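User: I'm new to structure prediction. If I give you an amino acid sequence, what do you actually give back? Let's try with this one:
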Amino acid sequence: MTTVRDIYEYLDSFAPFSTAMSFDNAGLLAGSGQEPVQKALLALDITPQVVREAAAKGAQLVVSHHPVIFDPLRRLVPGSAPFLLAAHGVAAICAHTNLDLAPGGVNTCLAERLGLRNVRTLSVDGPSGLPESLCGELEQELSPREFALFVRDALGCQAVEYTEGSGKVRTAGLCSGAGAFCMPRPEDSGVQAFVTGEAKHHELLAAAESGLTLVAAGHFHTEAVVLEPLRLRLRGQFPQVEFQLAEGSQPPSRYV
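Assistant: Good question. You get back a string of structure tokens that encode the predicted 3D arrangement of the chain. For your 256 residues, that looks like this:
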């Protein structure tokens, strides 16, 4: 019988929880680890809707990217995701920045979704020594607008925000989620574009000033790319467990 601890240890084997960034709260965040698992859901976020779905489907575990507990909990609020996990006896494993940094993790999946070739390290996370951002070549050279549209369509976004770089895009860098802090200067890095989930106003200004095409494609859409590859990986390791993508794992934003 597969337990929550078995799944945790398998995740730890290729995305070590010890490599999570210092601000993070990755790991086994609900449950003892001894619970037997016949069914598990995968989600980007553990929301109340996702927990209710897990309970309705008879799942014993939710594996998510974002931590269900991030800031210290001062009380358990009825209807909140942590409360519902405890009430329904559903365990939670959250693989966050350790999965961002891992080979085959979120950034690797984003590079694959964008069809980048010759994928390599663009910048390194100091404490872990792992790739913090990646870069690679496009199949064909694109104008800044064409590249932004390409990213939108590749990730299934309703819209993207972008800066108009000073030249065509052949080499693109990326860091999923809130990764604009990793964006390089084109003259220093050899990349003409950078894809991330979200960018602050001053980061957009800096990109425009440096001539970089910066594409902010949404936090959800740049990270949800990992869920199906992770589901297939877990299914291959634990064929006796049914792994499903949570239907309730959806982007919170709408566009008008």
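You can read the tokens as a compact description of the fold. Here is one thing that stands out. The mean pLDDT is 97.
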